[in-house]
């Protein structure tokens, strides 16, 4: 399902984009030695002020779009997808290794405690007053 701004799956967010008042060519810059870098910068400036940039980026990430979507280029979205896939793979491996659900109990504060010290005892020196 494409990103939507309501439960009906509509994409009315597009009509509220700040780019609706701009030259459409700005958002589909030509990549060959032309003015593309300047157009990309200008398009990104518009996107930064856009009220629907999150929905737009989500759409751009979920579909193979050319041009600027949610303030990102096609290449930037591709890199974001790869990072997201790497993170998902890492989480999956961690869960498979028992890290997420069946791993050893991790004491409060995330590190082992010395023998005989419980979490209730607090940090070293707690309750001893000033020295
Ligand atoms: S984020 Fe950018 S491309 Fe997307 S709707 Fe807004 S202005 Fe248009």
Notes on the protein architecture:
This protein is an all-alpha fold. The protein has a domain at 12-96. The protein has helices at residues 36-48, 53-62, 74-96. The longest helix has 23 residues, at 74-96. The chain is elongated, with a radius of gyration of 24 Å. The mean pLDDT is 79. The structure holds iron/sulfur cluster.
Bound molecules: iron/sulfur cluster
Distance between the termini: 64 Å
Number of strands: 0
Largest sheet: number of strands, sense, barrel closure: none
Supply Rg: 24 Å
Strand content: under 5%
- Stretches where pLDDT is under 50 for at least 5 consecutive residues are none
Net shape: elongated
Helix content: 25-40%
Q: Could you say which structural class the secondary elements and strand pairing correspond to? A: mainly alpha
The number of helices is: 3
| Average pLDDT reading | 79
Topology as a string of helices (H) and strands (E): HHH
